[in-house]
């Protein structure tokens, strides 16, 4: 997501031009495109704003229902719209040791109320039947192939709290079903912790599959409170559960040491606002 922007229909969102300007002022050199529909698909207009801030887009995001067959045509259109757009804009220089250049296509499953309200609760959350899981995997492969073959854009899959790829068993299954040749991983420290996983352990475990990492933090007191409530994931965020990095429970000094040990040269994206 783009610095906390999640729903482009939210009437309280700041203008996208303001977000680009303030991201640059906060020290970012690259940010994500944000949710589909937030920033206009107008190359000349957007490129002019990017040049003012000396900032680039490092990824675009599909944040949508990856399971439903009825939604698949919409997903393919999003791939085409996002990838054709971001590849026409200036891109960040490829770092030494970085496996794939940016921009990436971040693929996230979302849009299932029955899972949103059980986010962070692996013991009670409904799992997909095998038939629907296999359908979702086929959709992901098709989207990743479309992005790579038509636009040269590398896809990364983001396990997300409240979606059908969230918990330990689901990430393990994903790693078995989707090869690294097809798509990499984007692990998010906040989502891992929220969903009862140790970020340090999972970053190490998935070192060979990592192309992209999201750095975020969690206020433990508020996290413990929302775990006792029937609260959707973004409602939990609105309560202040996500705090600025270094002010929460996640052990970032240890994570940084680990990234050096595993020789990680991919992209790191942080969220300084804590949203």
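^ Assign residues to that structure.
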């Amino acid at each position: 997501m783009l610095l906390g922007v999640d729903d482009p229909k939210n009437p309280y969102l700041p203008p996208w031009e303001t977000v680009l300007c303030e991201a640059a002022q906060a020290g970012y050199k690259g940010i994500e495109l944000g949710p589909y529909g937030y920033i206009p698909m107008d190359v000349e207009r957007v490129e002019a704003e990017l040049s003012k801030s000396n900032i680039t887009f490092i990824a675009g995001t599909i944040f949508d229902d990856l399971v439903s067959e009825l939604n698949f045509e919409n997903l393919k259109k999003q791939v085409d719209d996002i990838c054709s757009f971001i590849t026409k804009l200036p891109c960040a220089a490829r770092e030494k040791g970085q496996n794939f250049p940016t921009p990436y296509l971040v693929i996230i499953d979302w849009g299932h109320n029955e899972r949103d309200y059980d986010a962070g609760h692996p013991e009670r959350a409904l799992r997909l039947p095998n038939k629907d899981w296999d359908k979702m995997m086929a959709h992901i492969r098709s989207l990743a192939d479309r992005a790579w073959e038509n636009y040269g854009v590398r896809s990364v899959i983001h396990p997300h709290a409240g979606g059908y790829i969230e918990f330990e068993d689901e990430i393990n299954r994903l790693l078995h079903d989707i090869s690294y040749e097809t798509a990499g991983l984007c692990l998010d420290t906040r989502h891992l912790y929220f969903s009862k996983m140790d970020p340090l352990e999972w970053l190490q475990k998935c070192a060979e599959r990592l192309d992209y990492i999201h750095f975020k933090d969690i206020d433990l007191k508020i996290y413990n409170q929302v775990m006792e409530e029937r609260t959707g994931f973004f409602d939990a965020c609105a309560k202040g559960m996500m705090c600025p990095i270094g002010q929460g429970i996640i052990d970032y000094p240890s994570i940084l040491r680990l990234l050096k040990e595993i020789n990680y040269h991919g992209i790191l994206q942080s969220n300084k606002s804590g949203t």
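The longest helix spans residues 130-151.
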